[in-house]
Amino acid sequence: MADCLFCKIVAGEVPATVVRETDTTVAFRDINPQAPTHVLVIPKEHHQDAASLAAASPQLMADVLREAGEVAALEKIAVREGGPGTGYRVVFNTGTGAGQTVFHVHAHVLGGRGLEWPPG
Ligand code: 5GP
Ligand code: ZN
Questions:
Q1: What is the dihedral of CA 18, 23, 24, 28, to 10 degrees?
Q2: Which domain of life is it from (predicted)?
Q3: What pLDDT score does 49 carry?
């Protein structure tokens, strides 16, 4: 998509701090982190939100969710028996009323601090 910020990150036209990349996904640090770990996982293919992605391509949604787990492991926030993990949250803001500002689906992976529930 010509005017999509995250498509530009995929294309290397906008710089980002990439932490993981696969054939189908990119994971990069949020420019305005809300937690010690705040990484965005996106499919390389453009879809506007989580529901659209899940409907159009369940496999690609699974790729994004698997990568969210890989990022958590890399950042040492994953819950692993006997490990140092603290737990983390995966969030898809969907629609402007829920805070979505970039309309290329992205999973926020947040962790490294206590996370309140329910969220604000
Ligand atoms: P949303 O509000 O749509 O759920 O999340 C969009 C996220 O993208 C926000 O957390 C925002 O800080 C992040 N963001 C916006 N522009 C950029 C950018 O140019 N680079 C990076 N790395 N993150 C961005
Ligand atoms: Zn896009």
A1: 0
A2: Bacteria
A3: 98
